[in-house]
Specification:
By secondary structure, the chain is of the alpha/beta class. The protein is 37% helix and 14% strand. The strands form three sheets. An eight-stranded mixed sheet has the order 3-2-1-4-7-8-9-10, with helices on both faces. A two-stranded antiparallel ribbon has the order 5-6. Strands 11-12 form a two-stranded parallel sheet.
Amino acid sequence: MTFTDQQPLGSPFSAATPAEDIVADLHLSGTTAVVTGGYSGLGLETTRALTAAGARVIVPARRPDIARAALPEVSNCEVVPMDLADLGSVRSAAARISDCLDRLDLLMAVAGVMATPERRVGPGWEGQLTTNHFGHFTLACELYPLLAAAGGARVIVNSSAGHTLTAIRRHDPHFLTGYDKWLAYGQSKTANALFAVHLDALGHNDGVRAFALHPGRIITGLQRDLPLQEQIDRGWVDGHGNVIGAGFKTPSQGAATGLWAATSLLLDGRGRLYLEDCDIARVSAPDQPMDDGGVRAYAIDPDEAARLRDLSAAATGATPIPR
């Protein structure tokens, strides 16, 4: 991949497309997907759309009882306990999934946290980097044999326009010198984008292709750690919590780009790309406003991806993906 590949394809879909339109003419019987966070927000919309098209969906969930309660009307769906911030839990979930599957067609990393208070997990790791990146990195590594066995699997990683806030802070990735909730979020979203670059580079010979994406601006449970007043001050919602911000999507519209990434024939033979609004995003200038769209060059740089791979592998001890 070169940066010139980061050009829109002219997709028939757009920012306004809902999830159900992406899968309307698809027949996914025989397809198996793992969707993290698949019981709330964008993940729930993703699970509903995939199962409606005939796919079998496994939902790893930190709160399995709540997940099952949220999915009673969704057929062909199973819940597996998993906490992304606990790598032992991630490995247990991966082992349980591996015991019941011989192949995995789709891994969709939708779960995440945003702008949380400072939280230390594991050996003192910063919580957002751990949940959003280390957890998904470990899950993908452990499930890689199933992805390779599918002979055409796709891995879809939800990043965000928040990646424009910062590159990987190699000097202090865990914010030991002072915590900033938004920079920590931005770093984790850059990590999500770079992980897709790394995974595709290693996996494409096995038919495993990876994409990262910005789902759009959406109010979901992702904002649960943000005080209402902060959301009001940012112009996202009114005093009653109703969405008033310009350009905000519904959860269904927010799930559409991930579903397009998972299923579009336009992406056959492609990978290592950053997507938005159901198309490939352009590379954005360093001073371009976050809400203008696009992807920063540092978030799709293969050398940065390799450095993050080394950092992540050393930290997590995850099973290496064959080179």
